Structure prediction request, 727 residues.
Amino acid sequence: MKKTSLALFAALLLSTTAHAQIANDKVKIGVLSDLSGIYESGAGNGSVEAVKIAVEELGGKVAGKPVEVLAGDHQNKPDVGASLANRWYDVDKVDMITEVVNSAVAFAVLDVTKQKNKLMMLTGAGSADFTGKACAPDNSVHWVYDTYELSAAVGKTVSQLGKKWFFISADYAFGAALEGGLRPVLQRNGAEIMGGVKHPLGTSDFSSYVLQAQQSGADVIALNNGGDDTVNALKAIREFGLKAKVMGFGLDSPLAIKAMGLATAQGAYNVNPWVNAEDADTKAFIDKFIQRRKTFPGSFQVGTYSAAKQYLKAVEAANSTDPKAVLAKIRATPVKDVFTQDGVLRPDGRMVHSVALTQIKAPSESKSEWDLTKVIAKLAGDDVFRPIDADGGCPAFAKK
Amino acid sequence: MSAIDTKPTDTKPAAEAESFATSRKLDYAFYALALLVLIAAPFFVYPLFLAKVLCFCLFACAFNLLLGSVGLLSLGHAAFFGSAAYIAGHALKVWGLPFELAALLGTAAAAVLGVAFGYISIRRSGLYFAMITLALGQMIYFLAFQLPFTHAEDGLTAVPRGKLLGLFDLNNNLVLYYTAAVVFVAGYLLIHRITHSTFGQILNGIRENQPRMISLGYRVNDYKLAVFALSATLAGLAGATKTMVVQLASPVDVHWATSGDVILMALLGGVGTLFGPVVGAVLVEMLQFYLADSGLPIQMVIGAIFVLCILVFRQGIVGEINRILGR
Prediction:
């Protein structure tokens, strides 16, 4: 009798502590993204679906508690994002917000997250300040890529692609930022910058820019633009039959490559934060994704899937949704999944992982509808992500 | 004079006096009800969201002060709203000023900008006026990208709210809401007063027949400039308060799309009415907020509602209600 009552008491105690740790007997993930604007195709509803897949694969439950996924459209407005995050945390009791493509919105949501002591897993936003001056090691992780990594990774390709570079940059903030980031990195890696041109946003005729690139005698042309500008520039380069290699930041979208056609796009390079290991797990995920979204997943979407899955596993292990406890669990084990084979979550919130130098396949190499790119080289995470104690890094971890 | 209808009536004097009295009673009853809703709302709806909505209500009313009274359609009102938002944000965050001073600074900046923009733009009317305000507004937008204190596309974030009068912590949602409510009511009353003053009647006269007002000896441009500046100032007050409420100022605040949103709010609610923009602002903000996690394509839904309203309610929602009530 005594024993059973003791056991009962112990069970009661256990259940109450568990109750206190996973609030409301539910784990809620909010996917905050651009669901109706320019970033939708690379992030948006695909990211929401990716999180749902992650939840389903874990049986819809962690630590015996059901998992719920909310999707929100921030409409690329920081104040809409911040108000929605406030409501999600206060009213809907969301435990973790993920994705948040668009850095301006992400900064706003990060402030809310810090105030409410919740967790944010950034997979869509790119500013390197999330693990720099705006870092929040106890409340945020930066999972997929950042602007520092992008240029550093391109810099590492100098030995493979060539020493003479030429820039074709979009004449607005984004293009200027890409070029500004690239110049010092290339020079540090021993490259010579032969020149550059700026084109207005939405140019359709790139012939004069491409001819200048040809005359410069460059080995590599870097396209510091995005969307249709990248497509049109690449088309012009092919039409003029330039021998130079092409490195394009805007060549990260499978949809865009498919639309352009491999005949035009073949041979162009891109740095992809997602290293496609082409193993069984990856193939299974891609199949599921294509079945539901009718398109190949982009790196943000795969990253969001990875972040959500690691989060849920950590909640299970910690039996808690407390940000610190969850982060401790994620840090404790290296990340090895569909997104990366060698990920490590650093104390400052940066998930460091290898990135891939990819090349678009020739039509003859492509075996199926979505077989578009191949990995040329893997660049080690420590070489491309900003070191934790470097200038511009998180102040809490600066060199003393 | 009815608060909701600013159009002159042409009934006989006695009947006019009578209808005037009943309409006035109806007005008081309406405003008493509205005030009750305003006070009780935060206990039913998320207060932080409501506080933000109130800022946009004031912004829409300020915009409508220009469009409704003198008939000038400005496409650059986000410039006043946004620059006040940035300056108030900078004052709160970097200079560490309390909210009252920051709001004052932001509003003053918007007023100065309003006088400058007004001086340039009111010389033209119609489409030309709209285009000039659009161009000036976009200049501010690009400035917001280039100036060092605005942090380009990342915007000013983590703006501290501080304490009201050094006593009440604005981080408390209810304190925050009632502060925004007081700012809104004060702004609304001021607009109400302006519209119903002699000054407001002269503005209506200018809207209806500018050459006649000139022939009567009014300096039309001075009146236009004055109301433009007032409208800009109140838009600035709304922007400064918004920064405190949502704790950020971003390029979206100065972008022409925000100017477009405010036109949408005024048109939906009813341009010729005082209360219409409030209804429009609540509607648009609620759509943006509650549809955000509904899975519907928000911009398309708002667009469809806009088209529907234009087709069905020519005078906006409040304008149409007024017509049905026979006022």
